Amino acid sequence: MAEERFDAVVVGAGFAGLYALHKLRSSGLKVRVYEAGSGIGGTWFWNRYPGCRCDVESLDYSYSFSAELEQEWEWTERYPSQGELLRYLEHVADRFDLMRDIQLETRVTAARYDEATRGWEIETDRGERVSAQFCIMATGCLSAPNFPDIPGLESFAGDRYHTARWPEGGVDFTGRRVAVIGTGSTGVQAIPVIAEQAEHLVVFQRTANFVVPARNKPLDPELQREVKATYPERRETCRTSAQGVFAPVPQHSAMAVDDAEREATYAAGWAAGGGIGILGVYTDTVIDERSNATAADFVRARIREVVEDPETAEKLIPDGHPIGTKRICVGTDYFETFNRDNVTLVDVRATPITEITPTAVRTTDGEYPVDALVCATGFDAMTGAVRNIDVRGRDGASLAEYWHAGPRAYLGLAAAGFPNLFLITGPGSPSVLSNMVVSIEQHVDWIAQCLADLEAGGFDTIEADREAEAQWVAHVQEVAGMTLFLKAASWYVGANIPGKPRIFMPYVGGVGNYRNVCDDVARDGYRGFVRARAREPLSVA
Length: 541
Ligand code: FAD
Ligand code: NAP
Description:
binds NADP nicotinamide-adenine-dinucleotide phosphate; 8-stranded mixed β-sheet; 32% helix; binds flavin-adenine dinucleotide; alpha/beta; 17% strand
């Protein structure tokens, strides 16, 4: 029997869970948030590795729901560090009195739909069992760490870390020999900082990545004042844009200009820092192979310029995927780091890791003795955290099994057969292809309005229609197929997790377009959803 009943249970207390709590509580609902961590903040609680920061500018990677919050919070850097983002979210939790409804150090292990009550029974690893009419998964797209399946990993006798489970007090690598496995966005941020401290650093690279300079700097107070004075317009631009960021809209193909103009445009983007100046200046960079190659070649040339040893430079040059089809990495002194005497690069595609021994990483080419091992090996992205929960919908059907061939969700918000269950930034929504705070706010606002409309209409359940869901999933694939994204073995398609079905998970159709679709669906009486009242039998397509 459930110990307590809520209107809504929210799983996770990152950007999504915190705003969901605030929003739903403001609509008068009784809400409980469960968070596995010992603190709030989600991504920005767990990822304390050296160098961790956001690569969307702080003025845009922040909540827009409260004008007071917007005005009172002072950002200090162009790109906020993990520490600054955590302080911001703790301030938000304080300011909106959120902690009283958040239970920390509590992992939701199971959620079962109960036909009799038309709600959810939720179980935690503390043995609690509560019920709620609505269950909202704010579990994060990048929150289930991926530990590499390397023989002997457990036998390593030195210190072993995953970047997404970094110790709260930090780690001192002074005088130590360190191995980093992984050169995605995380590795790219951590490697230069660890290299400065460690006696020696060995970087194990499987895929060379495109990295552009961040050019982070203290935030100009004058710029901050200007932005704060025009926030409503700026936020609206982000909400209706393709990626949720404040940037000029590209006007033409990379092929529409001559080589000199293109080179100058990329050079300006490179000098300004960030991904937009390279990926966001032409309309077709991730659509047309020739256009894409111009941007990729520009970055390759910069790598050759920076890296002194030509053999190392060639190893660092990405060649297996179009630029932008794996998440572009934004770094500080990344390529420069490989000019240091205390840094060794090992290409594990050429010489794979065969084993980890108690004292070393062994490859087909030899052994690298180390005192500490850092796995910057990413996440079981987009579906991992939800699948880790035993979610059972109508007739006891398992969500993990329903998704065995890849995730299926209508608008990325809800899955057929799982009434009253919502996914924030779920698969099939722009999520990880956007400034995620913008996408989170859009989903939370939509869900809150949906619950209010259900209440007003006397409905007590809502569920995705199977046919509408199938059409949306097909549309997500169709749009992805119009781009170059499917040419990369990325985590967007689940390629980083052995055995995971290969299906493109986020929606590449753009934040603004997607918002319009969601708003139309709601205006149209929740087209593609089935709503029901308790006194009526449920009919599901
Ligand atoms: P999260 O912040 O991941 O929070 C989910 C929470 O749910 C976690 O705290 C987790 O512990 C909890 N949880 C999961 N399962 C359970 C369970 N069963 N029971 C209880 N609790 C559970 N996005 C951008 O837009 N721009 C960036 O520059 C950017 N940089 C990033 C850098 C890093 C290192 C990482 C990892 C991600 C980055 N992201 C970025 C994506 C980032 O995850 C989102 O921007 C945003 O923070 C997600 O918020 P969230 O609340 O949806 O998820
Ligand atoms: P990731 O992009 O998945 O990178 C993981 C790295 O580990 C890749 O280089 C991968 O190689 C490698 N790897 C995985 N398993 C391996 C194995 N068994 N042996 C050898 N190498 C292995 O993960 P991430 O770097 O943590 O980033 C995940 C996402 O989080 C990013 O794409 C981004 O969305 C977000 N993020 C953003 C920032 C930021 O700057 N804003 C910073 C960090 C993270 P392959 O590429 O060959 O799979």
